[in-house]
Structure formats: structure tokens, C-alpha cells
Write a structure and sequence with these properties.
The protein has nine helices and 26 strands. By secondary structure, the protein is α+β, with helices and mostly antiparallel strands. Strands 6, 7, 8, 13, 14, 16, 17 and 22 form an eight-stranded mixed sheet that branches.
């Protein structure tokens, strides 16, 4: 495809991508947009120009605080909207070309949380990450818990504290045990960490009591985002037994502003890791269900240049999205449009591909060297954490932009 609009060859937002997001200009009216190169296409304005005249949907869903109502139209509409924009951008006689006001520079807008998240589930699906944690804190010879290879472990997270890229995070407080077998103290966390994750957004409701199979899961997944599930490791260590993460996780999670559709990711499907023992029948699947998505994390201290501390890839995930969704619903749990399902920390096989400071610094025993700003065991106040992700298949590039948040001093 050859678009008539100029797009840098290294842009995340190529003609093959066209992700959806929510933006506003100085008038603060939030609208649905599609990213192309350095610009945003105002879909509300494109509708008025007749681009979607053959599709039957209400224009009001394109002037909204969130993508939920647009997503709820169903893939028979949302996929066609993306394809029509793609076609228009490759047509020299397009009405979009003769109406440049439809295009808005990304640097001049404010991006907003793309979906209203009703429910948020965080999985624990990287075998390398789970093995590292088990080796560190349990038994190196039996790092994985007995259930880990039989089901995609997950927990219900806090939706209200999910924020869009560009918003800062305050260092949390909680109970911490400073010495073994001693009572806890209440204090500011000294072990704030990032978790390199990706998340998928539910695009279709399911009914209570029904389950979604691995074969049908794609119909329920609208798209994916980058996700930084902030963690307070010292608080987590004390509170997580017996019911799992709570205050150590709920203080903030950051997500990228643009939702990359499952259709845009189709060229990047790859086989996942071999699963042994053989999974139960409801978790079996056909075809390639992992995605080759390059990921990186950088830390930028205040007034310093960034240091890339991790290079990872989403293809490493042991449990894929289809399996996660099938397991999530196998008991009859219903899904709602806008629900968010996070992958869990994405770590690779090599130390430079680990997806958290807990692993990169091996619980603080191996400080990570920064280009400027000394070393890090965990994240310091005024450090900015930057996550990026993209796919590349020959000339086809599809990226996620970034998710950026600064850690501020505790209130």
C-alpha cells in the first residue's frame, strides 16, 4: 500500500496499523481518532465528509469520552471503518486529501484513556518471569508452583487506578516487614518497580454462564496496548499471602494511548512455546496464537538521558491470549466491552530481556548501570519509565507508540 500522506518508514503508525484512540484539542471535546504517521484523523469529521456513508451507525459514538460505544458496534463496523480509512489514504482522489483539516498533528492534542475499563484482570503468563520469581523467593529446583503449567494464573486488579501514558505516579505507602519474623511498619515503599506488560481490550460482551472457546476468542478481542503494571515489591512481599496482590499493585497501572487492532497484528503471528504437560482440552488451540512484538523499557532520571534496561518480546508468552480468555470465562464469568486483560510481566530467556527491576537487579543484589544517574536497584523518585513496542515484517511496521510515566515523591 502506498499512502499519499507522508509517513516516515520508521513510524509506529504506518498505513498497515491505523490504531484507534481518544483525543481532544483546546476545546476539550473528546473524539475518536486514528493515528497515521505524525497525525490523527478525526473520525467525526471524516464521517461528516461521507467516508462512512455505506455503514449504518450513529455519528455520536465518534464524539465520546471513550472508545467503548464505538467498539460495541462490533467488528463488522469497526474493521470496515479502519479499512475505509486505509483505502482513502491510498486513493489520490480521496475526500480526505481535499480536506486537510481532518488531519491534526499529534503534538497539538491531549490523549486520553482510550477505554472506560469496567474490569481488569492481570495474568502471570511468562514462564521465564515466573521461574525467575520462584528461583528468587522459593526453591530454584521447583520454581514454578504446581498449578502454573496447567492454567493461566490470574487475579482481579483495580480498574480505577489505570491511567493513560503521560500521567505521573506517586510513590505508594503501606505495610512493610524490614526484618524476618518482625512486625510490620507503615512506611513509604522503597522498592517501586515497573512491570513490562501488554494488555488486550474486550470488544464484545458475553453472557453470564457462557464460556468463550480458544477458537472464538479472537472475536472478543478488539486490540492491544502497552501496559506498565507498577508494583511496590516490599509491600507485595508482606501482603500477597494468602490472597495475592492488593495495595502493592492497586496504586497505579499505566497504558498506552493507542489501541492497535487484532487485524493489524495478523501478519506478526508466530508459534508459541511448547506446552508440557499437554493442556486440558478447553485450553487447546489451533494455529499460531502468539505475536512477534519487540518490546523495550528505558529509565530516564530527572535531567538525564534515558538508558534502555530491557529488550523483550511478546512472543515469549507461555499462555497466549486465546487461552487466557478461555480460562477466564470457562466458569461462566461474563465479559463486557472495555474490560482489560493484562499479560503479566513479559520476560525473555536472557538477563537483558527481563521485564522488571526485581529480575534485572535480581532483588537488588545486582544494581543496573545507567548511562547517567548512577545505578538502580528499583525506581527512584523523579525517574521516568518509558516502554515501547513494535512489530516489523519486511516493510510492514506496526507499533504501539509508548507508555510513559514519572514516579513522584509520595504525598
Amino acid at each position: 500500500m502506498q499512502p499519499w500522506i507522508k509517513v516516515d518508514k520508521n513510524s509506529d503508525f504506518s498505513i498497515y496499523n491505523l490504531p484507534f484512540g481518544i483525543f481532544s484539542e483546546s476545546n476539550q471535546i473528546k473524539r475518536v481518532g486514528i493515528a497515521i504517521g505524525e497525525n490523527i484523523i478525526d473520525l467525526h469529521a471524516a464521517y461528516k465528509l461521507g467516508v462512512f456513508k455505506d455503514l449504518k451507525f450513529d455519528i455520536s459514538v465518534l464524539k465520546s469520552n471513550h472508545l467503548n460505544d464505538f467498539i460495541a458496534l462490533g467488528k463488522h463496523i469497526t474493521v470496515k471503518v479502519r479499512e475505509l480509512i486505509q483505502s482513502e489514504l491510498c486513493d489520490e482522489n480521496s475526500v480526505l486529501k481535499s480536506h486537510p483539516s481532518v488531519f491534526i498533528n499529534q503534538l497539538t492534542v491531549t490523549m486520553h484513556l482510550p477505554v472506560k475499563v469496567g474490569d481488569y484482570t492481570d495474568f502471570y503468563s511468562s514462564i521465564e518471569h515466573a521461574t525467575n520469581i520462584g528461583t528468587m523467593f522459593r526453591d530454584p529446583d521447583n520454581a514454578l508452583l504446581p498449578n502454573w503449567k496447567y492454567l493461566p494464573v490470574g487475579y482481579h486488579g483495580r480498574a480505577s487506578s489505570i491511567i493513560v501514558s503521560g500521567n505521573d505516579v506517586y510513590r505508594p505507602k503501606g505495610q512493610v516487614v524490614l526484618e524476618p519474623n518482625s512486625p510490620p511498619t507503615f512506611q513509604v515503599s522503597t522498592r517501586v518497580d515497573f512491570e513490562l506488560e501488554m494488555a488486550f481490550i474486550i470488544g464484545k460482551n458475553s453472557s453470564l454462564g457462557n464460556s468463550v472457546s480458544t477458537n472464538d476468542a479472537d472475536d472478543y478481542i478488539f486490540g492491544k496496548v502497552l501496559f506498565n503494571d507498577w508494583s511496590a515489591r516490599d509491600i507485595q512481599k508482606w501482603e500477597y499471602v494468602p490472597l495475592g496482590p492488593f495495595l502493592a499493585k492497586s496504586f497505579a497501572s499505566s497504558m498506552s494511548a493507542w489501541v492497535v487492532t487484532l487485524e493489524a497484528l495478523e501478519p506478526f503471528k508466530v508459534d508459541g512455546p511448547s506446552q508440557e504437560p499437554v493442556v486440558l482440552p478447553y485450553l487447546s488451540y489451533k494455529g499460531s496464537r502468539n505475536y512477534d512484538i519487540n518490546l523495550e523499557v528505558a529509565i530516564q532520571p530527572e535531567s538525564c538521558i534515558e538508558t534502555i534496561v530491557s529488550h523483550s518480546n511478546f512472543k515469549y508468552m507461555y499462555w497466549n491470549m486465546n487461552q487466557q480468555l478461555a480460562h477466564h470465562t470457562v466458569n461462566g464469568c461474563n465479559l463486557n466491552v472495555g474490560d482489560l486483560m493484562a499479560s503479566g510481566t513479559i520476560s525473555g530467556k536472557n538477563p537483558n530481556s527481563y521485564g522488571s527491576m526485581l529480575e534485572l537487579s535480581w532483588a537488588g543484589t545486582k544494581p543496573v548501570e545507567l548511562i547517567e544517574g548512577g545505578t538502580r536497584k528499583f525506581i527512584k523518585d523523579d525517574d521516568t519509565v518509558i516502554m515501547r513496542g513494535y512489530c516489523q515484517n519486511g516493510k510492514i511496521r506496526v507499533g504501539f507508540g509508548n507508555v510513559i510515566s514519572k514516579l513522584l515523591k509520595a504525598k
